[in-house]
Amino acid sequence: MSRAGLVRTAIVVAAVAALELAARGGLLRAGVAVPPSEVAAKLWSILRAGDANADLAETLGNVALACGLALVAGFSLGAVVHGLPRLRRALDPFLASYYALPFFAFYPVLIVVLGIGRLPIVAIGFMFAVVAMMVATLNGFDRIPRALPRTARVWRMGPVRTALKIKLPSAAPHLFTGIKLAVAYAFIGVIAAEFIMATSGLGYAIAYAFNNYDNRTMYALMLLLLGIVVVVNGVLHGAEQRLLARRRAR
Amino acid sequence: MTVRPLTRPAAATAPHEIHARLAGVTRTYGAVGGRGGVHALGPVDIALRRGEFYSVIGPSGCGKSTLLDVLSGLSRPSAGTIVFEGRPVDGAVPDGVGVVFQEDASFPWMTVRDNIGFGLRENGVDAAEIGRRVDAALALMGLRDFAAAYPPQLSGGMRQRVCIARTLVMQPRLILLDEPFGALDAQTRLIMGDELLRVWRETGATVMLITHALDEAAMLSDRIGVMSARPGRILAEIETGWPRERDSRIAADPGFGAVTSRLWGLLREESLRAIGAQAPAGADRA
Q: What Pfam family does this protein match (any one) (chain B) (predicted)?
């Protein structure tokens, strides 16, 4: 492990240890914090009993659906808008200010329009993720060096082959950034939506435990969520590193 | 660099066979309803002789790159005709024409070997033939030790070698180069110029080089077309009279100074015009 990696690990270990000591030593009230060791034990028992399985499956399903739709729609919209410079100029301010909007304020509208259940939750996750992917797609296509498609024309390649074999790989690093952002935003959107307008799912389960003063379960589910997000991002990061390894100067 | 001279009997028997010809070529940009357009080029008449090394030199913004674009078929001329090997060029790059751009056009996601072979694969050449041609191009451009490297791991000069090699494997009969060494440092430029001369001799291709560097044009060319400020026209064509077997050391030849001073004599005023003309040209459009 590198020196920075050692320091990083030490910070996490020290923080967890400090929380453990503070909770056990009475520095933090029992109603506020639970020692991490007990949180881990609780999570283990929840996982063994399978109590959270249904909520977990539902949340992961929602995230996958929101994220998948956002990736497809974001990429397609980005590709189309990139080809229409006038529309693009008209849309640019909307895209730039999109994330300034507090989407969650509109949740009553979503419930009225889409009803209670999975749909409004997936919709929020989708809305959160789609523009990140679209902007990343636009960025990626913007940064294709002009000489690359021109080279394709010298070789008499058609527009489809040029798109698939030259433009797509050239834009790939930016597209990957979009995928990473879309996954993160889909998680945020879905979990937050489950807090406020769901009757199942991990977000709902956390809120339910909180409302019932069940701190141990609440923290255990938070830990579960954290673990999932860390694993998903770790996998994406690894894939990105493999993609970029060759493109970096040594 | 010692290279076995390659004599080409064909060139000796038909020294002035016309390989490509531009006649009355002009290019105007952005003319909507005949107003507000920029007259970028021409009318230009150039007759490229088969196997010659022809350079086009001119002040910045004179339409040199536009000239290359229309000659290669990457864009259509607004008026005039372009003929390559007896067939008109119109909006598509003909078989037998290779182009090297100023910008780095190598694919960062492919090895040098795959970069060089890509055009051949796209054009359906069989694998064994691709292997042979790529190996030859790697050797010719001094890239053998870098075949497995990725372009971002290479210097700018090496990446431009990759792009030249990628053009050469297609066995073009006319090679167009748009300021290919513009982004390189002065010493690398000299080396690359020598390599280009070697490639030109060994392939027997006709070469048209776009450049803004007087010494580069004087050093490399059989003939030099000197362009005016925008809209670029050919002011004069200068024959250097260099032997086919030559390299950058030709700069020490007594005739070299005569060629460059003649070029500068023609270009000085045009360059001043190009610099001075920018402000009024902008004001005109406003």
A: ABC_tran
Q: Which amino acid is residue A50, in one-letter code?
A: G
Instruction: Determine the Cα–Cα distance for residues B215 and B209; give it in Å rounded to an integer.
Output: 13
CATH architecture of A35-243: Orthogonal Bundle (1.10)
Tokens of B286: 């406003």
A154 reaches B (C-beta below 8 A): yes
Confidence (pTM) = 0.79
Each domain of chain A, given as residue ranges in start order, spans 35-243
pLDDT band at A189; cut points 50, 70, 90: very high
Q: What are the structure tokens assigned to A3, written together?
A: 């020196």
Chain B, 58 to 117: residues with Cβ < 8 Å from chain A are 72, 74, 92-93, 95, 97-99, 101-105, 107-109
pLDDT digits (tens, 9 = 90+) for B138-179: 988 889 999 999 999 998 888 988 999 999 899 899 999 998
Nearest partner of A225 among A49, A67, A39, A28, judged by Cα: A39
d(CA A150, CA B65): 13
Question: Which of A146, A154, A172 faces B93 most closely, judged by CB atoms?
Answer: A154
Architecture of domain B17-96+172-285: 3-Layer(aba) Sandwich (3.40)
HEC per residue, chain A? CCHHHHHHHHHHHHHHHHHHHHHHCCCCCCCCCCCHHHHHHHHHHHHHHCCCHHHHHHHHHHHHHHHHHHHHHHHHHHHHHHCCHHHHHHHHHHHHHHHHCCHHHHHHHHHHHHCCCHHHHHHHHHHHHHHHHHHHHHHHHHCCCCHHHHHHHHCCCCHHHHHHHHHHHHHHHHHHHHHHHHHHHHHHHHHHHHHHHCCCCHHHHHHHHHHCCCHHHHHHHHHHHHHHHHHHHHHHHHHHHHHHHCCCCC
Q: Where are the domains of chain B?
A: 17-96+172-285
The strand pair at B97-100 and B174-178 is best described as parallel
Give the three-class secondary structure for B226: strand
Give B248's DSSP letter.
Answer: G
Task: Evaluate whether ipTM surpasses 0.85.
Answer: no
